[in-house]
């Protein structure tokens, strides 16, 4: 038997680990299960390249809980470790990682372990003693047992173990007894290991028999090894995306649409993002995107990683290239993260534009739900705002949708100020402004509906972006001000012109008064707008004009 002192300069690292990482105790299970998965996948790779000539057999990773003994065991049939490898990867390497980690983040309580090879040692956050029983896949390897009670002393000795692979046995300490409950382990597996690429069994499946739940002899597999985002979009249909969505967010309404991300250069990123359906004025839940690192769950707090406005989206992002396990401030300054962020923005814009072009009707139907995201994006992200010019819509009170360009065309002839400023009229409360809206439309003006949560900000944004334009709320004042469009024209008539006009009208006067209705030209000039009036009214107007 070998005794030794683990390669660590800090006198006793464990109290420090426990203290700094207090809030994240539960990740120990993620770390150990993902190590087991790694070891299994490594063996699979060695097998496929012919370096391992034995039989792979069943590679299921097993989590076993023994409440009486107070232990949790994580077993795999992966590559295992020789005594030398334990020395290298557990005694030295892992601890040097721990040192780096503590050195770098001793003042940052938010830092999370894993990234610096602290993974395995997170087991000491919850254990008074940890054992490794392992047999390497290498020919002629001897099984070894490593044991450590949380001091820097360890023992390493040969042990009988027939099957290839590794068992990690955690002797849970008194302060962490909650992890000895089946429900708690289930919860952690569901949270962190749900999409790991190797099957993970925890206990046996149960079934209902004679009104009782009884155990079967079938493994209860807790994970889905090929989650949707790891598959090819060509192999997936709408229903696949929708059902994956509802598996992530049970009870929510179907999403509006999805964006399947798949990037391998200059960084690695896969995932599926969804635009959730939101009802008007109900706050969107932020931070529903789950972040994974090679299918290992890391966090659902993605601020600083995805662009601010996309934190409103739902879904999954998976990247081995995001330095996932370090602090937020570090993340935000990381150049890789910035690249990823702007790439996601681009992808989202591409997809929106594609849907808009392909099926405008469907896009318009979704607009009321969509507008919050797009407006928020345009308000907070310059690049996105540029792209969204093409597919952001304005809606008028008739329920018609226009792109910015189209709307400008629509009002350009009719809705300008004296100095050629385009006047965008809008209502933010259609009921309350009902009569003003009517008055404005009666005069041939178009009125937009701007009653969304962000519309006030959005209007400011548009006023800055659109050249020579002004947004004006329709109210009594405005409707009165709109009237001068006619009087403007009238006042432009000189006395001589008026006399000419009168002459024209006089010439048109019916003889004998047989005609009842007459056409009058209200607006003189290029925009002359004929209206029908009664003969009586016609006479009255003529008299009025002659009197002037
Ligand atoms: P990381 O997983 O980031 O390398 P860990 O501290 O989690 O860091 O693990 C340290 C090393 O210990 C691993 O890289 C691996 O070589 C070895 N190891 C841990 N668990 C296992 C296991 N179940 N089977 C084989 N090797 C393992
Ligand atoms: Mg690890």
TrEMBL record:
<feature type="binding site">
    <location>
        <position position="81"/>
    </location>
    <ligand>
        <name>ATP</name>
    </ligand>
</feature>
<feature type="binding site">
    <location>
        <position position="31"/>
    </location>
    <ligand>
        <name>ATP</name>
    </ligand>
</feature>
<feature type="binding site">
    <location>
        <position position="35"/>
    </location>
    <ligand>
        <name>ATP</name>
    </ligand>
</feature>
<keyword id="KW-0547">Nucleotide-binding</keyword>
<feature type="binding site">
    <location>
        <position position="166"/>
    </location>
    <ligand>
        <name>ATP</name>
    </ligand>
</feature>
<keyword id="KW-0963">Cytoplasm</keyword>
<feature type="binding site">
    <location>
        <begin position="96"/>
        <end position="97"/>
    </location>
    <ligand>
        <name>ATP</name>
    </ligand>
</feature>
<feature type="binding site">
    <location>
        <position position="328"/>
    </location>
    <ligand>
        <name>ATP</name>
    </ligand>
</feature>
<keyword id="KW-0346">Stress response</keyword>
<feature type="binding site">
    <location>
        <position position="76"/>
    </location>
    <ligand>
        <name>ATP</name>
    </ligand>
</feature>
<dbReference type="GO" id="GO:0016887">
    <property type="term" value="F:ATP hydrolysis activity"/>
</dbReference>
<dbReference type="GO" id="GO:0140662">
    <property type="term" value="F:ATP-dependent protein folding chaperone"/>
</dbReference>
<dbReference type="GO" id="GO:0005524">
    <property type="term" value="F:ATP binding"/>
</dbReference>
<comment type="similarity">
    <text>Belongs to the heat shock protein 90 family.</text>
</comment>
<keyword id="KW-0143">Chaperone</keyword>
<dbReference type="GO" id="GO:0051082">
    <property type="term" value="F:unfolded protein binding"/>
</dbReference>
<keyword id="KW-0175">Coiled coil</keyword>
<feature type="domain" description="Histidine kinase/HSP90-like ATPase">
    <location>
        <begin position="24"/>
        <end position="176"/>
    </location>
</feature>
<keyword id="KW-0067">ATP-binding</keyword>
<protein>
    <recommendedName>
        <fullName>Chaperone protein HtpG</fullName>
    </recommendedName>
</protein>
């Amino acid at each position: 038997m070998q005794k030794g002192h683990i390669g660590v300069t800090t006198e006793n690292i464990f109290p420090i680990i426990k203290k700094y990482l207090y809030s994240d105790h539960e990740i120990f299970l993620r770390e150990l299960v993902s190590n087991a998965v790694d070891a299994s996948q490594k063996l699979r790779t060695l097998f496929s390249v012919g370096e391992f000539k034995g039989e792979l057999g069943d590679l299921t990773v097993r989590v076993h809980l023994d409440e009486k003994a107070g232990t949790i065991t994580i077993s795999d049939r992966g590559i295992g470790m020789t005594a030398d490898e334990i020395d290298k990867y557990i005694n030295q390497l892992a601890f040097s990682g721990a040192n780096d980690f503590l050195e770098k983040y001793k003042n940052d309580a938010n830092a999370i372990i894993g990234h610096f090879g602290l993974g395995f040692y997170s087991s000491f956050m919850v254990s008074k003693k940890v054992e490794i029983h392992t047999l390497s896949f290498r020919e002629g390897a001897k099984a070894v047992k490593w044991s450590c009670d949380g001091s820097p002393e360890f023992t390493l000795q040969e042990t009988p173990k027939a099957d290839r692979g590794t068992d990690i046995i955690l002797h849970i300490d008194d302060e962490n007894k909650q992890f000895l409950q089946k429900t708690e382990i289930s919860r952690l597996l569901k949270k962190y290991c749900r999409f790991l690429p190797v099957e993970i069994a925890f206990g046996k499946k149960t079934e209902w028999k004679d009104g009782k739940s009884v155990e079967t002899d079938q493994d209860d597999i807790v994970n889905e090894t090929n989650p949707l985002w790891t598959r090819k979009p060509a192999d997936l249909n709408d229903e696949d995306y929708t059902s994956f969505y509802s598996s992530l967010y049970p009870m929510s309404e179907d999403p509006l649409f999805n964006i399947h991300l798949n990037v391998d250069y200059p960084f690695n990123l896969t995932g599926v993002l969804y635009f959730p359906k939101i009802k008007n004025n109900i706050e969107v839940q932020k931070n529903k995107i789950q972040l994974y690192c090679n299918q290992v769950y890391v966090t659902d707090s993605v601020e600083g990683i995805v662009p601010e406005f996309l934190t409103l989206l739902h879904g999954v992002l998976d990247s081995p290239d995001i330095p996932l396990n370090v602090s937020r401030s570090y993340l935000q300054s990381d150049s890789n993260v910035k690249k990823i962020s702007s790439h996601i923005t681009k992808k989202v814009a591409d997809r929106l534009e594609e849907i808009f072009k392909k099926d405008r009707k469907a896009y318009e139907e979704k607009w009321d739900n969509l507008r919050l995201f797009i407006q928020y994006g345009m308000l907070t992200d310059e690049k996105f705002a540029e792209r969204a010019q093409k597919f952001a819509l304005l809606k008028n009170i008739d329920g018609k949708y226009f792109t910015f360009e189209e709307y400008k065309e629509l009002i350009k002839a009719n809705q300008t100020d004296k100095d050629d400023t385009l006047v965008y009229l809008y209502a933010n409360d259609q009921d309350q402004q009902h009569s003003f809206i009517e008055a404005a439309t009666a005069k041939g003006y178009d009125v937009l509906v701007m009653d969304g949560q962000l519309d006030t900000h959005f209007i400011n944004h548009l006023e800055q972006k659109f050249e020579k334009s002004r947004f004006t709320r329709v109210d009594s004042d405005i409707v009165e001000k709109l009237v001068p469009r006619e009087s403007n024209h009238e006042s432009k008539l000189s006395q001589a012109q008026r006399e000419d006009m009168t002459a024209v009208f006089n010439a048109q006067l019916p003889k004998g008064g047989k005609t009842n209705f007459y056409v009058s030209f209200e607006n003189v000039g290029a925009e002359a707008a004929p209206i029908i009036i009664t003969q009586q009214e016609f006479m009255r107007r003529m008299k009025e004009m002659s009197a002037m």
